[in-house]
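Morning run. Coffee first, then this:
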Amino acid sequence: MLPRVARQLEKHLSQDLGEQVWREPRLGAPADIDEHRRTVTHLEQQNVELASRLGERRAELEAARAANRELTRALNQRG
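And here it is:
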């Protein structure tokens, strides 16, 4: 019974020490973690915007290709 209690106490002590270390700016999470999160959010937004612009450009390209096909057909029918 004692070894089980000792393991539980050891586990709790380890968790408590781990949390203390995490809170220490020198040893745990970077002090600027909020800045990193803001950067990630900004990059995610930028990615969405770029994906949207890419979709628009693809649509424009497809429209240009369709117009090119129509012009080519028209020229071929004349000649």
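The longest helix spans residues 33-78. Good start to the day.
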